[in-house]
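User: structure tokens for FAD:protein FMN transferase, please.
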Amino acid sequence: MMVAFTKSAINNPPNQFEVRFRAMNTWIEFKFQAAQSEAEELIFLTKNWFETVEHRFSRFLADSELCYLNRLSGQTCVVSDPMLEVLQLAELYSNKTDHTFNPFVQQALKEAGYSESFEAIKRNMPDSNSIRERYEIANFPIALDVRMKSVRLPSGIHLDLGGIVKSWAVKRIATFLRNKHFVERGLLNAGGDLLTWSSDEEMMRKWSVGVEDPWNSEKEFAVISCNEKAVATSSTLGRRWVNQQGVQHHLIDPCTMRPSKSDTVQCTIIGEDPIECEIWSKTICILGRENGTKLFLARAPGYEALVFTEDHKSHFYGEQASIGSVWMSIEIDEFHYIV
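Assistant: Done. Predicted tokens:
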């Protein structure tokens, strides 16, 4: 199978390549350094990985493992190793965020109008019912049996793992490419969930990652200069639509089981782990700047946040030394330095 790819810009090394393709209802971007003879195979492996992950975890594909689990909610099911791993992570981060990250939001997403992939959203959906009852059920832990590799979902409650699986997929394939194929320098970006790495010899040549201006998608608000770092951005402005219930988006507040209505419209997190970054970017958007960052600062040491609020202000939470060394070309309204 041939996969189209291009070499990177002329200012980059001659053995750096890049590819962009669709998977998991988003754009996947892969930039890496490798020998010419290995480039096509590495791109094929990466593309195949994301397609495999989509087929296992998509709620839009009837034959996915996720849909199989949801059809059998209330029953004990044996699951694959990847599904077991992601479910364990989902339970971990649900507890870590005081259940703000909640994998049991599929029905709420459907009732908000997100019943198909974003490109094909239906505009008219019925109003939701029994929201409080569903929320109480959804806060029960997933019944996981690690030894038996089995899971039992609460009866009538359905999973949506879209809030964690992209960053998990990025982390897993990056680890594979580094450890098994010795890719010494790379950048993987799955719809805003991003991981960079470099060998010791390449550490001085940092990756530049743009942060989109939430008020103007044609502009970059900031540039992050990093190596061996993950970045994730969540927003209530991107995946947004209107139906008879009003303006809707894809970040569900588990307290109401409706799209969140906090003061935060976009949040970018940088740190070591792309999964951690993704979870906290969503959590801050859902809880809002004050409550979200309070929890974030208490439970995610070593991570930094750039928060945009609905009053068009930007807030930075991190170390003062990061401004100008990690966060480049940035104009912040309010600094909240971590000491």
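User: Anything notable?

Assistant: The CA atoms of residues 88 and 144 lie 8 Å apart.
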